[in-house]
Hints:
Blueprint: H1 3-20, E1 26-27, E2 36-38, E3 43-48, E4 54-59, E5 62-67, E6 73-78, E7 84-92, E8 96-112, H2 114-117, H3 126-131, E9 135-142, E10 161-163, H4 173-186, E11 190-196, H5 208-212, H6 219-255, H7 276-282, E12 292-296, H8 310-325, E13 332-335, H9 348-357, E14 364-367, H10 384-397, E15 409-416, E16 419-425, E17 431-432, E18 440-443, E19 450-451, E20 453-457, E21 460-464, E22 473-476, E23 486-487, E24 497-498
Helix pairs in contact: 4-10, 8-9
Amino acid sequence: MPLSHRLFRFAGVALAASLCAPAAVRLSSILGDHMVVQRGLPVHVWGFAEPGEAVSATFRGETRGATADDLGHWSIYLTPGDAGGPFEMKIQGTNTITLSDVLAGDVWVASGQSNMEFAVRGVDNANQEIAAANYPKIRLFHVLTASSEFPLENVLVNSWVACDSRTVADFSAVAYFFGRDLHEKTGVPVGLVSTSWGGTPVDAWTSLRAIAADSSLMPVFAEWSKMMDARSTSFLRWQGQLTQWEQAVVRAKVEGKPAPNHPWMPNLDQSWRPAGLYNAMIAPFTPFPIRGAIWYQGESNASQERAPLYAHLFQAMIRDWRRAWGVGDFPFYFVQLANFKTGADSRWPELREAQRETLALANTGMAVTIDIGNADDIHPKNKQDVGARLARWARATLYGESIEYSGPLFRQATADGGNLRVWFDHAAGLDARGGALTGFEIAGADRKFVPAEARIDGSTVVVSAAQVASPVNVRYAWSDNPVCNLYNAAGLPASPFRSGE
């Protein structure tokens, strides 16, 4: 069955389930055996039953009840508690559901495109990593890919599993290494919800409500319209090729020759639909309280048309998720794009700058990966350092560990004679790794950038160029695959940046 038909059928089934309200009490698909519920927040249990049916939930010695509404929805909140378990949860109506091996800990949503989707089986030293992945208090939930025109009430059916060498191999590597680091440092159970889809843009992960509320985001719909026009042309062209192929198959059979290959069918799935992935892969479990989110995406927005809008759209998405979950401005940590040789029309430096600007939002953090990418592979295999750098933000800013959690971040550039002095946050122990400091460029009022001589002076960098008498602007690591080597004493790389507009 084509993906678009399967998703439509799933959406119809989900809607029918909520409207028809079968007599048996049912739970949201995110609730199940082996799950982790968020410590310190009310435990939310919800699902479907016969309209007017009384439903109760018992957990950690407490029982509370609710009555299903006219559409069969019911919702129960139980008292917050500390980390621990395993516990049993019992839900009772005309039937009884018992959930076993439930832990209380910290729940993290991991989302984005293919570098977040990238599985543990593909990383450096994968065999050793998989063999060592025995963490019974880390629980994994993998959301199956789907798209929808409207917000769904359930994700495609899946289940929670304990982390071991069997379950971790096909799970998000970045999410696993992030969760592993936090669990090892805190001892708290960790629940990881992996919900990613390779090759998708940020607009697909943002609700229509958020996009439509801001007129400056209307280019999202213009780009979608262009894509749909192009797909119509591609589909018509494919139909012509299909007719020719069918005729060629007949001729080959008559002539006793091998049949030609079937023509490639254009991708007609809806993974780029604005809000499509939010509707199917985020909205269904926003009633499930979480500690925070991690994010690795941006490659699909790094085009000439899309990159200029990314800073605004990405920040809108983060606010949108926080509104939807309703648990406050939860931590949102993301990965800045790594080094990679892209096409001439790409805008990876601008996209990285948009990601850096997103740090202006409260309770956000950015893992810089400009030094651990692969120039020839958009999917670098070192996901261990990516997860560890994301975890540093959580360890320091959420759990209170006294560690440096960011590489140098540009603060400002000031005139210093014929030079520019560049100031950074997180600049203790600036170091040029591997030799002379490189990666800096400066420009005068004409904004014609030239390579700069750069030297470290305490917690600042002084830059100059003989051909620029009065420098105004400076930038660092401003290319798709830059040569750059500025770090701090914690061994964390400086983020690419540019001053001015």
